[in-house]
Amino acid sequence: MSRKITKNLFLKLNNKFKYKDKIKLLILPTIITLILINAIPLLLLIYMAFTNWDNSLAFSWKNFMGLDNFKYILTNDRFWQSGVTTLIWIVGSLALELPLGLGIALLLKRASKRNLLFLSLTKNVIVLPLVIAPIVVGVMWRFMMFNANTGVINYFFRLVGLSPIEWLGKEWALFSVILTDVWEHTPLFVLILFAGLQSLPDHLYEAARVDGANGFQLFKNITLPLLKPIIYVVIVVRSIDLMRWIVTIFIMTGGGPGMKTEIWNLYLYQLTFTRFNVSKGSAMALILIFASMLISILFVKMSLKEE
Amino acid sequence: MKKEKALDIFTNILLFLIVIIFVLPILMMFLTSIQDPMLIIKDAKPHFIFIPNFQNYINLITKTNFMRSLVNSLIVSIGHTALALFISFPAAYSLSRGGSFKSKFWVTLWIMATRCLPPIGMAIPFYIIFQRLGIYNTSFGLMILYLTLNLSFGVMMLKSFLKNVPVELEEAAFIDGASLWTMMTRIILPIIRPGLVATSIFIFTVSWNEFMFAFLFTSFQNKTAPVEISSFITPMGIQWAEMSAAGCLIMSPVIIFAIVIRKYIVSGLTMGAVKG
């Protein structure tokens, strides 16, 4: 009897083991997909960066070029100039979005604690910029907001007696595209930081308040330190995305006027798809991939050090 | 208490201003789409009060290729969403239930890393591969391409939903002799249906909105709606009326979706790193 039970149990365990294995195998379709859509294109990209593909987008075995393509990119003034623009674009956007997002999140927190009138309206409206197609965002900011004559911003400027500004002209273009991004992506900061604020324990605040701490002290000594991990997450997610971004700038200025708003991705687009310097573009793409990896590792390291 | 009341009013006013700022561009686009285009060109200033007419929409539908591009967008987005779910659901299940296998960390990292690559950079090798395979300028090609954007979303979002389903349920089914297939289709799928809906809406939205890949990989009759809207900006001038109406048509389904799945947007956008 007991032998039978043992045998049964053994069979079941054996079965269970296979079962777990089966579950593990379910990852296979994804691995195959990743090989097809990620590994193979990346390998081809690396091959292209080291060979001569310029002026051709058809496949054949090409001449090996060594590091010439990389040399061309790294000694190119335009690469460094657009690098500076990219840096301003990333840092400028983050510097505006983080404090604004934190501010709005704090407002929402207060509103949800006091159950205020505009709470749910604000929460619903604030997700809209995130889900509207970036191309439509670009179109509406270029034509409905920033247009020098018919744009709303200049209309309000004239109403209050300020002189209208050429928003997408030489001086203001970079600021304008950053402003568009602030409108589009501050909501991400708001949503994430608000979720973070909601998860902070109330009793800490009550204890601090009993000890006589004022609002600013509460914020500086409780909210900010507890929110830090989440702030790091948003900054990492956003920097990676800002590094990959192109659509709104593409449609609003196309990198112009001159090269005032040309970020790396736009230069890469120019290089590869309008001038057909394909292998130089590939080399640049690899450099960009490397740079964005570096940024993410840097931030992860920084946030680990903090903890 | 009086101070609290005053602060409440102040907060309400600020929130109202924030709402206005975030709605204004969307509102302006809508207003432009329902006014006579001559009005904009003639006065060179925005109008807030006018007699609305829907002639722009009628022109857009009857006189341009926009409807065809909208249908293309729909085909690509639905096809891609089905494909992405089909691939990412087993993976999410495997990652959340398969115990801790050695390669798990690396697979997860690989899935996440696909999301960090610059799309223009990846477009270069894809351009050559797709032309070689003969799927350049097809809806099917776009469905495949969008996997590079959405596979990570799908796996990570579904994984975070699966985490909330108690394992005991599956163990009970297993002891009753259910096969893996029955368990997935009869037990897991019905339970995480809300998560599945949220994930598919999310994936649908991303592919519906995508511009750059579609711009590079489709032309003529295969253009998607976001590509078609950029064709209203011509060297000869800007077709204000059609452009704004097209913009409104592209964003309206997504706006409805967004309000439905608002709860899940945060965890989706951060790939499960933050709970919404």
Keywords:
heterodimer, A: 307 residues, MetI-like fold, flat, B: 276 residues, mainly alpha, 75% helix
Verbal overview:
The complex is a heterodimer of chains A (307) and B (276). Chain A is mainly α. Chain A folds into 2 domains: 2-49; 70-306, MetI-like fold. Chain A is built from 14 helices and no strands. Chain A has helices at residues 2-25, 28-49, 68-74, 77-114, 119-126, 128-131, 134-145, 152-159, 173-198, 202-210, 215-244, 247-252, 264-274, 278-306. In chain A, α4 (77-114) runs parallel beside α9. The relative contact order of chain A is 0.12. With 276 residues, chain B is an all-alpha fold. Chain B has a single domain (63-269), classed as MetI-like fold, CATH 1.10.3720. Chain B contains 15 helices and 2 strands. Chain B has a two-stranded antiparallel sheet with strand order 1-2. In chain B, β1 and β2 (237-238) form a beta hairpin. In chain B, α4 crosses α11. Chain B starts with a helix and ends in a 7-residue tail after the last helix. In chain B, 46% of the residues are buried. The model of chain B has no long low-confidence stretch (mean pLDDT 85). At the A-B interface, α1, α2, α4, α5 and α6 of A face α1, α4, α5, α6 and α8 of B.
**Terminal CA distance of chain A:** 57 Å
Poorly predicted sequence stretches spanning 5 or more consecutive residues of chain B? none
Overall geometric form of chain B: globular
Note the beta-strand portion of chain A: under 5%
What is the name of the CATH architecture of the largest domain in chain A?
Orthogonal Bundle
| Strand portion of chain B | under 5%
Spell out the helices and strands of chain B N to C: HHHHHHHHHHHHHEEHH
At the fold tier of CATH, the topology name of chain B is MetI-like fold
The CATH superfamily of the largest domain in chain A turns out to be: MetI-like
Mean pLDDT of chain A: 85
